[in-house]
Specification:
Shape: globular
Distance between the termini: 46 Å
Helix content: over 70%
Number of helices: 6
Largest sheet: none
Number of strands: 0
Structural class: mainly alpha
Radius of gyration: 21 Å
Length: 178
């Protein structure tokens, strides 16, 4: 399927470049090194994201930015990829009665607002610096901060549980016997 998708995309891109229709200067052409990078990112990024439970955007966005894709296009691609898993998760949770619709609507509104403001700030940063790579460094900073803060706050939470008498080495049963 990957090979078929690459062939179709390559033919479409050749037509876009040949006739100058919907082709933007600086667009990543899927040929040569860029094709190998995109397919490798797709495979290994999907493998890592799936194995670690990460959102695909944490893998794909920095990779696309490093290929020179504009941050808006990179962000939109990441959001498009996440759309399917998010809709599926919401549907399953709704069908099982786990989804609080009022809370979901509030979160949706704030997410939409944050996305719009993020895109405006991204445009401003790229316009000021003239480089899309500034977004890669911002993402690196966010990942470094989360890599340090997650174990620190997790450790503090475990220490607090231990202090309150919770057996931190006990297993929680997955199923309760009838």
């Amino acid at each position: 399927m990957t090979w078929v998708a690459i062939r179709i995309s390559a033919k479409e891109q050749k037509l876009k470049v040949k006739y100058g229709i919907n082709y933007l200067e600086g667009e990543v052409l899927l040929e040569g090194r860029a094709l190998v990078v995109v397919v490798s990112i797709g495979f290994f990024g999907g493998l890592v994201a799936g194995a670690l439970g990460l959102g695909g955007g944490s893998i794909y966005n920095p990779a696309l930015l490093s290929l020179g894709v504009h941050p808006k296009a990179s962000g939109a691609t990441g959001m498009f990829l996440v759309l399917f898993s998010t809709v599926n998760t919401c549907l399953i949770n709704w069908l099982n009665g786990f989804l609080d619709l009022d809370y979901a609507l509030w979160i949706s509104c704030f997410s939409l607002l944050g996305s719009v403001l993020g895109m405006i700030c991204t445009d401003w940063a790229v316009r000021i610096t003239g480089k899309a790579s500034i977004m890669v460094w911002i993402l690196v900073a966010v990942f470094v901060i989360s890599t340090i803060s997650t174990p620190v706050f997790g450790g503090l939470s475990v220490a607090d549980d231990k202090e309150h008498g919770v057996n931190i080495f006990a297993f929680i049963p997955l199923c309760k016997s009838p």
